[in-house]
Amino acid sequence: MVRNVLRRLLFRAPTALRRCCHGEPSSSGQPPPPPPPATDKELLQRKVRRYTLSRYVFYVRRFEHTLEENFPSAMHVYRVFVVGIKDFYEDLKHFIRVARWINRNGRDGLARNELELHFQMPKDMVRVAPVLLISALPFANYVIFPLAYMFPRHLLSRHFWSLQQRVDFAAIALRKRLYNQRPILRCLQVRLGDLEEGKLRDQWANILGLLGSGAHPNLQQIQQVSGLFAETQAFGMAGIWANHKNALVRLHGMHMGWKRRWRLRERAKLLREMDFMITEEGVTSMSNDEMRYVSENHVLIGAI
């Protein structure tokens, strides 16, 4: 019975399959002949094409070198945008993969640099979007690209910045955020009177005195008063005043629109997860740029 079924299947199979299974010869009875050897004319044509292509590449490279010597500024602008767009596109693809992972599985299983990319990339996309959209219009790139090159901090993202520009712009952004630390400190000092008399209140008053004089409390002193920042306590997210909340939003560079408390909670969770990952990976595994980024952003977690 099995033999009959196989015979029917083989009979219904294509002719080439039956020939392959039974070893039947092709229609000509011989295997296909090998391709004929190249003639002298074809070999000459191949050599000419190879020589022409190599000379073309040589002239393109020499022309690029000539442009760099005669028009260094124009070539610098060209390289800034070419390299920047390439890096931006690679980060955008990586950001899409990370966003899909977070939508399915949450932030579990992500590395520290992936969390930082998911945190930073939306800001870069918003900053670069006007330049990319306007450059798509006819002849608009002759205007928007020079303007973007003249004002890179406002019109371009970190992908287009040089190393020195990254350091300078990060310092400007840090000073702008730290400007909002003074109203936060004032809110903390005003709420001191709402705390009950006791050891915890005295410890918190000591910390406020250190901060007001320009000094910094140590880790042990901060841990002793960490209970004051619980959700239901005086300095928890549900108990802070409106001006305190607004100062925190400005401190972290977020907009003043909807869901400010929820966005502050999410930012605190994200910074905490990054801190845990830094502890697990070790500081020695981080590059100088990563160390600079962490020192500029994670140092502010104590303000939440």
Main traits of this protein?
14 helices, membrane, 69% helix, LETM1-like_RBD, 304 residues, transmembrane, mainly alpha, elongated, LETM1/MDM38-like, mitochondrion inner membrane
Walk me through the structure.
It holds the Pfam family LETM1_RBD. GO terms for molecular function: ribosome binding. It is a single-pass membrane protein. Keywords: Membrane, Mitochondrion, Mitochondrion inner membrane, Transmembrane, Transmembrane helix. It is found in: Mitochondrion inner membrane. The protein is mainly α. It contains 14 helices and no strands. It has helices at residues 2-12, 15-22, 40-70, 72-105, 112-135, 141-150, 152-155, 163-178, 181-190, 199-212, 219-224, 242-251, 260-281, 288-297. Helix 4 (72-105) packs across helix 5, helix 5 (112-135) crosses helix 13 (260-281) and helix 9 (181-190) packs antiparallel against helix 12. The radius of gyration is 33 Å and the shape is elongated. The model is unreliable at 9-27 and 299-304 (pLDDT under 50).
